[in-house]
Amino acid sequence: MVGLLGHNTGGRPGERLMKRLGMSISDDTILRHLKRNAARADDDAPPRIVGIDDWSWRKSWRYGTIIVDLERRKVVDILEDRSVISVAQWLKRNPLY
């Protein structure tokens, strides 16, 4: 359930929704769960079409980058920052079809 809500809503909104459902969980835990699942996705074939977006770990203070396989609708990786250099390095290490 954490993975489904986290993937669809993100950290803070997922935390608020889980609290309303009676399940106390932090936004950091939701993001860790997503990152752990992204590491497991390495077993699959490389994605052909990826979506890349930046998002906030902490609003107006710290940002990250999420890379998603758009065909399988799976999180492929979460990068610690939102720099172009980090994404370019990730693309060099992880060739696409």
| Order of strands, widest sheet | 1-2-3
Instruction: Quickly count the helices.
Output: 4
Shape, principal axes of CA atoms: globular
Q: Report the span from N to C terminus.
A: 31 Å
Strand content: 15-25%
Number of domains: 2
SSE succession: HHHEEEH
Mean pLDDT: 82
- What is the CA-based Rg, rounded? 14 Å
Report on this structure:
This protein is α+β, with helices and mostly antiparallel strands and 97 residues long. It folds into two domains: 1-43, no CATH class; 44-97, no CATH class. Helix content is 43%, strand content 24%. The chain is built from four helices and three strands; from the N terminus they run αααβββα. The chain has a three-stranded antiparallel sheet, covered by helices on one side. The longest helix is centred in the middle third of the chain and has 14 residues, at 27-40. It is globular, with a radius of gyration of 14 Å. It starts with a helix and ends with a helix. The mean pLDDT is 82. This is Transposase.
SSE blueprint and pairings:
Blueprint: H1 2-9, H2 11-20, H3 27-40, E1 50-58, E2 62-69, E3 74-79, H4 84-93
Antiparallel strand pairs: 1-2, 2-3
Helix pairs in contact: 1-2, 1-3, 2-3
Give a quick summary of the entry:
The protein is α+β, with helices and mostly antiparallel strands and 97 residues long. The chain folds into two domains: 1-43, no CATH class; 44-97, no CATH class. 43% of the residues lie in helices and 24% in strands.
List keywords for this structure.
97 residues, alpha+beta, three-stranded antiparallel sheet, 3 strands, 43% helix, globular
